[in-house]
From TrEMBL:
Residue ranges of the TM segments: none
Lineage of origin: Eukaryota, Fungi, Dikarya, Ascomycota, Pezizomycotina
GO molecular function, one term: oxidoreductase activity
Annotated source species: Thermothelomyces thermophilus (strain ATCC 42464 / BCRC 31852 / DSM 1799) (Sporotrichum thermophile)
Pfam family, one: Ldh_2
Keywords: Oxidoreductase
This protein's name: Malate/L-lactate dehydrogenase
Length: 357
């Protein structure tokens, strides 16, 4: 079994194949299983392990508890030539978001912009995979979602609003990486606390408060308390913005009504808001790409503050991690592999195959 610093290395192809097998054995169509697997494995490749294949046990548990429909197919309603709505019918969030971005891209190709609201969906993992879908099609994008209560609003002390990521992107120039911003409005994403819990690690004291309102480095206590918004009222306002555009506008749950991926009591009813924009609306594509190059060079070429060796463009660190992991494989801890293989045993599919040593 291949090991690296105590980790088990898995090739991305094997991880995808494994996730597809688990999902198909749970009643998900091959097409939708591949979309979910690609989104999750892309998170592991980009180093966003909090939103990678380790999410599978909780997703499968939702299917077993009858609160997520594995057979649901998202449906599309065209509202105006540039506006559409997707109903996820309580299936996986990944195919619903994929259909929404696909539709937004094709509207943007014809009309310059496409906007799709998604209702009755579920958790779609890392937003960056949807931004990448747009970047790969040469489009700029906005990708918003709401999520289950985790943050107090500014001045409040109990969970009301989701740690809902705000994401957007733009294709890069001939010698720059694409711009991919994907950030939770909390000091850290809640998935990072679940990851620390799985790995038996402590968390920084400024991430969350425990149930008594005190700072804690214990992930278990943090999950019983509240996450802290980044930048105080500004992070809280961004989280509310995600709920306005993804929840209120779509007809999905909002104002604390979304059910989280680890809550097996009822459907998620998550809403998303997805926009694609053609980058060559106001100038030629060449000029846009040259201007992205100038911006990239100015950003990464900035004077560095003390202690900083290199300045990165948003999304660049994840892209570098992806390049390494595409060639060297993805590292997991044994406990994560065991939890995934327990699902394989339950469903009678082959275990996750580690890379050859
Ligand atoms: N679906 C959901 O409900 C949900 C909820 C919460 C979080 N998430 C996901 O969790 C993930 C993690 O979110 P996060 O806020 O912890 O991300 P993060 O703090 O790791 O990164 C946020 C952004 O900052 C950029 N960045 C980070 N370090 C940088 C540096 N040194 N220089 C330049 N840019 C840098 C990243 O490229 C990224 O765009 C995201 O992928 C998000 O989509 C999903």
């Amino acid at each position: 079994m291949a090991q690296e610093e105590g980790k088990v290395i898995v090739r991305h192809e094997a991880a995808e194949e494994f996730v597809v097998a688990l999902l198909e054995a749970s009643g998900v169509s091959r097409k939708n299983a591949e979309i979910v697997a690609r989104g999750l494995v892309q998170a592991d490749l980009r180093g966003v392990e909090s939103h990678g294949i380790n999410r599978i046990p909780s997703y499968l548990s939702r299917i077993r508890n009858g609160v997520l429909d594995p057979k649901a197919e998202p449906t599309l309603t065209q509202v105006t030539p540039v506006v559409a709505q997707v109903d996820g019918h309580n299936g996986f969030g990944f195919p619903a978001a994929h259909l929404a971005m696909d539709t937004a891209i094709s509207m943007a190709r014809t009309f310059g912009i496409g906007m799709v609201s998604v209702k009755h969906s579920n958790h779609f993992g890392m937003s960056a995979w949807i931004v990448r879908q747009a970047v790969d099609a040469g489009m700029m994008s906005l990708v918003f979602t709401n999520s289950s209560p985790a943050l107090p609003v500014w001045g409040g002390k109990s969970q009301l609003i989701g740690v809902s990521p705000i994401a957007c992107g733009a294709p890069g120039g001939p010698s720059s990486v694409p711009f991919i911003l994907d950030m939770a409005p909390s000091v850290a994403a809640r998935g990072k606390i679940y990851k620390a819990l799985r790995r038996g690690e402590k968390i920084p004291l400024d991430w969350a408060l425990d149930a008594d309102g005190k700072p804690t480095d214990d992930p278990e206590k943090a999950l019983k308390g509240v996450m802290l918004p980044m930048g105080g009222p500004k992070g809280s306002a961004l989280a509310i913005m995600m709920d306005v555009f993804s929840g209120v506008l779509s007809g999905s749950a909002f104002a604390g009504g979304v059910t989280g991926p680890y809550d097996m009591s009822k459907p998620g009813d998550v809403g998303h808001f997805i926009v694609a924009i053609k980058p060559d609306l106001f100038m030629s594509l060449d000029e846009f790409r040259q201007r992205m190059d100038i911006l990239y060079q100015r950003v990464v070429g900035s004077d560095k503050m003390e202690g900083v060796d290199k300045i990165y463009f948003p999304g660049e660190i994840e892209q570098l991690t992806e390049a390494t992991r595409l060639s060297q494989g993805i590292p997991f801890v044994q406990g994560e592999i065991d939890a995934l293989n327990a699902e394989a045993d339950m469903l009678g599919v082959p275990k996750l195959r580690p890379a050859a040593a």
